[in-house]
What we know:
This protein is of the alpha+beta class. The protein has one domain. It has five helices and three strands, in the order ββαααβαα. The longest helix is centred in the C-terminal third of the chain and has 16 residues, at about 80-95.
Amino acid sequence: MSLQTEFPFTLPKGYVDEHGTLHRTGIMRLACARDEIEPLRDGRVKENESYATVIVLSRVVTELGTVSRVTTKTIESLFVSDFGYLQDLYRIVNFQDPSILEALEPGAPFPRTSVEVG
């Protein structure tokens, strides 16, 4: 048995880049401890703890359409529904059973859970 470490996704609305190109598909990898620890050293997180989520997502979203590099600016520019979608996906792949993803249509909302990311 092998461990799945990358998970394809389709955003409900999609990221629109500075050229007006829509990007909906991407890949999120499993997070490692460093992905959650490093943002705590960032000054933006010291000002606003919620910003840690933006940094973590920019580290674990490895592909988003043809965007060459996913950055915090990319994540900040997502529509709220897409940001929430990626937060839910992060919780599922890192803290739950990712096999539930197989039953969902691309871009469909995830089942609500009680797992919280710290």
